[in-house]
Design brief:
Layout lengths: L34 H13 L10
């Protein structure tokens, strides 16, 4: 795309130069046979002081 006021193409940015602050994260997926088992694992992880995130795919 050309800038209409300068008639120049925008400068290309290298990957990662968009100002986004990347913070590495690590996770763990525990396959469950059904929602009840997922709730049991979730409750246990909460008891252990962890902060699980629920995912359904």
């Amino acid at each position: 795309m050309v800038n209409l006021t300068t008639n120049q193409a925008p400068a290309k940015r290298r990957q990662g130069e968009n100002g986004f602050k990347y913070k590495p994260q690590f996770g763990l997926v525990i396959p469950c046979k059904d929602q009840a088992e997922q709730q049991q694992h979730y409750a246990r992880l909460i008891e252990l002081g962890m902060a699980p995130k629920v995912v359904c795919v």
